[in-house]
Amino acid sequence: MRTLIVFDIADDGRRSRVVKALLARAERVQKSVFEAPDLNRAAYLRLRSELEGLIDPTQDDLRYYRLCAACVGRSEHVGCGVGLLDPPATFEIVG
Question: Does the pLDDT at position 18 exceed 60?
Fold first, then answer.
């Protein structure tokens, strides 16, 4: 299941740590929006635990939107940014 992760983090240091953690597992599609590829439940829970340990819940906002295959299929994108929801421009069949 794909996951859209969005945040609003008040402190530059905390924001940098969250971005660093997300860049290891997800693609940045906007400044405070990341798309993670198909994370199984265990990987999703590990990511949540890590991210939530980096923020101050009294000042910061962190949201997760889990997208089923049908939801991904109904998603639309307009503009120059490329995310995991968009099909690749080119692909190679290996086998």
Answer: yes
- At residue 86, the 3 state secondary structure works out as coil
Q: Which residues contact 81 (CB under 8 A, 6 or more apart)?
A: 29, 30
Give the separation between CA 67 and CA 56, rounded to whole angstroms: 26
d(CA 38, CA 84): 10
Q: Which domains does the chain have, with CATH numbers?
A: 2-69 (3.30.70.240)
Banded model confidence at residue 1, pLDDT cuts 50, 70, 90: confident
Q: Where are the alpha helices (DSSP H) in 5-76?
A: 12-23, 41-52, 69-74
pLDDT band at 2 (very low <50, low <70, confident <90, very high): confident
User: What whole-number distance in Å separates Cα of residue 44 and Cα of residue 88?
Assistant: 24
Asked whether residue 95 carries a pLDDT value surpassing 60, the answer given is: no
